[in-house]
Amino acid sequence: MFATFASVSPNDKIRVVMKAYHIAVVGATGATGTELLRVLERRNFPVASLRAIGSARSVGKAVRFREESVPIEKLGDRSFDKIDIAFFSAGGDVSRNYVPVACQSDAIAIDKSSAFRMDPHVPLVIPEVNAEDVRQNRGVIANPNCTTTVMLMALHPLHRVFGVRRVFATSFQAVSGSGARGVEELRRQVTAKDSQPAPELYPHPIAFNLLPHIDSFLESGYTKEEAKMQDETRKIMHLPELPISATCVRVPVYRAHSVAVSAEFERSVSVEQAREILAKAPGLELADEPQSNRYPMPLSVAGRDNCQVGRVRLDCAFENGLSFWVSGDQLLKGAALNAVQIAELL
Predict the structure, then answer these.
(1) Active-site residue numbers?
(2) Digits of tens for pLDDT over the chain (346 positions)?
(3) 20 to 30 Å CA-CA from 137: which of 51, 84, 108, 276?
(4) DSSP secondary structure code for residue 208 in this structure
């Protein structure tokens, strides 16, 4: 289906042939799966063959990849035969049941769900942050929660220089984080001409509103989403005792998440040095000209690979503190792009 990739050196004397990989995408018709196929194609990932896998109701449909139509196959115990890398983006239950099947077939599974993130034997990886952890995989590599990823794209470069001591974060998460139903619910409520349509997915109207919880509440008073940000940040940064308090908010934005962060550091900080560090960080753009109304916004990052950071300032509540605002496309860097970058590391 797809050819082996080759590259020729500038002097035409050395021809390097790269191995092409047999790829499976579980959840190929979903929002993340669709983005993942686009990212694989756009980044010219060396794909020898592609197996698009979906639910029983998706069989008979097809996805496009490199100008070819790829039929959807039903997920089953033989879905990963002769597969090198299997991307999972179909939810925790599917991952728990079929990631072991993929591993038994000698495929490496890159899983978007939360099923294996906190397993001590499974690396949880953001390539710009902890790429070396990929080497520890035993057949499974987990993709972090999208909000955690967006936050750490800015927090980790600062930590490497100043040493983070504690973190307070508030997320502002787009409805596409809930999938197509979230987008449709917001659109229906925004465009209603008469009475406000009753909410179906969310407990209250999301249009012109903010919902200060995502996922269910825990006994601690935090939500599962907030606990994910806390626990995953500690694991990715190898800081198991890091104090971090998160509040996650669903907002009437179609695409791209934002996070307001206040962090205290071990060493003395300055805005000038912080901006210099952030401007050089991979996968991150500094958009910090508040006097010109230039700062990160969901509209600025939607559909873009890089996250943006701005509103960098000394935090007046900490002795060595910085506050900043970071935005990123949760379907790209928060999901599909990050997964493909992990495959590139492999």
Answers:
(1) 146, 257
(2) 555 455 444 555 555 557 899 999 999 999 999 999 999 999 999 999 999 999 888 888 999 999 999 999 999 999 999 999 999 999 999 999 999 999 999 999 999 999 999 999 999 999 999 999 999 999 999 999 999 999 999 999 999 999 999 999 999 999 999 988 999 999 999 999 888 889 999 999 999 999 999 999 999 999 999 999 999 999 999 999 999 999 999 999 999 999 999 999 999 999 999 999 999 999 999 999 999 999 999 999 999 999 999 999 999 999 999 999 999 999 999 999 999 999 999 9
(3) 51
(4) T
Strands 47-54 and 68-74: parallel
Phi, psi for residue 63 in degrees, rounded to 5: -120, 155
* pTM, entire model: 0.93
Which residues are within 8 A (CB) of 258 and not within 5 positions of it... i.e. 6 or more apart? 150, 171, 172, 296, 297, 298, 325, 326, 327, 328
Task: Tell me how far the alpha carbon of residue 43 is from its chain's centroid.
Answer: 17
Neighbours of 12 (CB within 10 A): 7
The answer to whether the CB of 171 falls within 8 A of the CB of 247 is yes
